[in-house]
């Protein structure tokens, strides 16, 4: 059998027959942190779709609010993940002349850098001048990472030692340049009596636990911001405390003695990096915003709900309607006050937002019916009619449009003239209010079906005051309640109506 090579084929690149393909080693320097770039890409992948649908929102104000909310929460989440996995919690760098590797006495002038994260230390070596001598033409650009996650392990460099101990021993076997090994040796556990690695490992462990605790709080804050801003403010405060605590723990526990690695021309020292400042700043911002939202949610939860794009109804947990009456009493008990000067009662709604302890009063105007807020919402949902959440609907005219079938706010017995109307009526023979009779009598005086007043097509015939509900045949269960014990001009708490003038006119409705 001949083994002479045949004509070249499609898959003969880097191959010498009959041997398999052998490709040369390709050494490329590490220029970026792939994990950090991955987190940035992931969060901007979520941000870009929101920016694309932003023109669909109507109004510049709404677009701006949506952009602020989405951008803030996404950037906050990105900051948390970068602080957790980032490698710039503590950094240091110097340029010096140093030995390069074993087997050569040629020195190089290079830049040595160290970047500390919560889980590892990253050491770089890059030549700033072209190597000479037997190193001429060699590319010097190294980036080595040594992990200490998380167990300390046994002493030494055996199979049961800590992770950084094993990585350091493997780097020695690979022939990593001397400057990298000199720096990495300072972070091995108790190597040569040094305890820098032990302190950095513990600091990174507690700091990363605080940051991981802030991550679910971030998710919970986003959810609660659409449910209850008072609770969202508390979770935001906790998230800020957790992030700030991580920065404080790293600064206080990383090492009691400052890290100094001596070289021939300088000493390599470290200082706080961008992710330490980012973690501290994000924590302080969350604390300040959480406190601000917490205090503003008690008095300005309507405005805050508008800012966060929420429904104000979802914050109302309890509502109380209170009727207050301010009137100018007579100078003495004998003097009778004018009934037309009496003040109408004012109805105030006191609402308390969910998760708050502050009550907010909402007084009604005089032309607004005393309609409970939650009851209006329930009825509007049954009729599919939009509700104005700022104030109750205005009262209708007390004519043919009053109390129609679609807008019966309450039964006559509750909102009619029980305490505020015709408990003293007209006597058949006279005009005005008499203390000994109650209501309209079916005599000659008053409003008969045939006279001008209450015709079948006029007055209150079709709107609730017919013969069964009006002034015709006595007082039914929906009419006017009799009160024979109270005198005519007694100082009662219920509001009285002004006496009619001649000619008699239909009475005016009570105003709230």
Strand and helix layout:
Layout: H1 34-53, H2 60-85, E1 90-99, E2 107-116, E3 120-127, E4 141-147, H3 163-174, H4 178-185, H5 196-224, H6 229-253, E5 260-262, E6 267-269, E7 271-272, H7 274-299, H8 301-307, E8 316-324, E9 346-353, E10 359-363, H9 373-383, H10 412-415
Antiparallel strand pairs: 1-2, 1-7, 2-3, 3-4, 5-6, 8-9, 9-10
Helix pairs in contact: 1-2, 2-5, 2-7, 5-6, 6-7
Radius of gyration: 42 Å
How would a crystallographer describe the biggest sheet?
5 strands, antiparallel
Counted up, domains total 3
Tally of helical runs: 10
Q: Helicity, in percent? A: 25-40%
The count of strands amounts to 10
Runs in which pLDDT lies below 50 for 5 or more consecutive residues are 363-368, 389-448, 450-500
Structural class category: alpha+beta
Arrangement of strands in the largest sheet: 4-3-2-1-7
Question: Strand portion, in percent?
Answer: 5-15%
Shape field:
elongated
Roughly how many Å apart are the termini?
114 Å
Order of helices and strands: HHEEEEHHHHEEEHHEEEHH
Mean pLDDT, to the nearest integer, reads 74
Main attributes of the structure:
single chain, about 500 residues, alpha+beta, 3 domains, 10 helices, 10 strands
Descriptive notes:
- The protein folds into three domains: 34-41 and 73-299, no CATH class; 312-327 and 340-395, no CATH class; 423-512, no CATH class.
- The protein is built from ten helices and ten strands.
- It has helices at residues 34-53, 60-85, 163-174, 178-185, 196-224, 229-253, 274-299, 301-307, 373-383, 412-415; strands at residues 90-99, 107-116, 120-127, 141-147, 260-262, 267-269, 271-272, 316-324, 346-353, 359-363.
- The strands form three sheets. Strands 4-3-2-1-7 form a five-stranded antiparallel β-sheet.
- Residues 363-368, 389-448 and 450-500 have low confidence and may be disordered.
């Amino acid at each position: 059998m001949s083994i002479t090579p045949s004509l070249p084929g499609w898959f003969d690149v880097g191959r010498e027959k009959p041997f398999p393909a052998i490709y040369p080693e390709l050494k490329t320097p590490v220029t970026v942190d792939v994990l950090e770039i991955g987190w940035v890409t992931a969060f901007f992948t979520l941000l870009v779709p929101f920016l694309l649908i932003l023109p669909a929102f109507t109004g510049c104000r709404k677009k701006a609010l949506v952009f602020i909310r989405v951008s803030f929460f996404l950037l906050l989440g990105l900051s948390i993940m970068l602080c957790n996995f980032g490698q710039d919690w503590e950094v240091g760098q110097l340029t010096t002349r140093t030995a390069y590797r074993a087997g050569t006495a040629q020195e190089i002038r290079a830049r040595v850098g160290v970047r500390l994260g919560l889980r590892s230390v990253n050491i770089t070596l890059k030549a700033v001048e072209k190597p000479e001598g037997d190193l001429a033409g060699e590319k010097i650009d190294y980036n080595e990472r040594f992990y200490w996650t998380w167990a300390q392990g046994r002493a030494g460099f055996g199979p049961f030692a800590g992770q950084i101990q094993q990585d350091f021993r493997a780097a020695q076997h690979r022939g990593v340049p001397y400057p990298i090994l000199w720096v990495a040796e300072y972070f091995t556990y108790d190597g040569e009596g040094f305890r820098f690695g032990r302190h950095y490992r513990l600091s990174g462990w507690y700091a990363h636990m605080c940051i991981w605790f802030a991550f679910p709080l971030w998710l919970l804050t986003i959810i609660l911001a659409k449910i209850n801003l008072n609770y969202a403010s508390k979770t935001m405060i906790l998230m800020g405390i957790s992030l700030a605590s991580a920065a404080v723990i790293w600064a206080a526990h990383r090492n009691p003695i400052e890290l100094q690695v001596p070289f021939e021309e300088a000493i390599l020292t470290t200082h706080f990096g961008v992710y330490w400042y980012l973690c501290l700043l994000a924590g302080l911002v969350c604390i300040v915003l959480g406190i601000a939202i917490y205090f503003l949610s008690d008095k300005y939860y309507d405005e805050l709900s508008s800012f966060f794009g929420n429904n104000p109804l979802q914050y109302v947990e309890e509502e109380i309607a209170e009727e207050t009456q301010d009137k100018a009493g007579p100078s003495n008990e004998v003097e009778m006050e004018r009934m037309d000067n009496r003040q109408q009662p004012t109805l105030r709604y006191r609402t308390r937002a969910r998760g708050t302890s502050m009550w907010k009063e909402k007084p009604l105007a005089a032309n607004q019916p005393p309609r409970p807020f939650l009851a209006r919402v329930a009825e509007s949902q049954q009729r599919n009619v939009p509700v104005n959440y700022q104030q109750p609907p205005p009262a209708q005219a007390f004519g043919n449009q009053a109390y129609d079938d679609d807008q019966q706010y309450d039964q006559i017995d509750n909102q009619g003239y029980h305490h505020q109307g015709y408990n003293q009526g007209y006597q058949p023979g006279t005009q005005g209010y008499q203390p000994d009779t109650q209501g309209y009598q079916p005599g000659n005086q008053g409003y008969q079906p045939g006279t001008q007043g209450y015709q079948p097509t006029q007055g209150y015939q079709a709107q609730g005051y017919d013969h069964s509900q009006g002034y015709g045949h006595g007082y039914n269960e929906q009419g006017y309640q009799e009160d024979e014990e109270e005198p005519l001009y007694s100082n009662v708490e219920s509001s009285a109506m002004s006496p009619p003038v001649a000619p008699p006119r239909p009475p005016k409705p009570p105003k709230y």
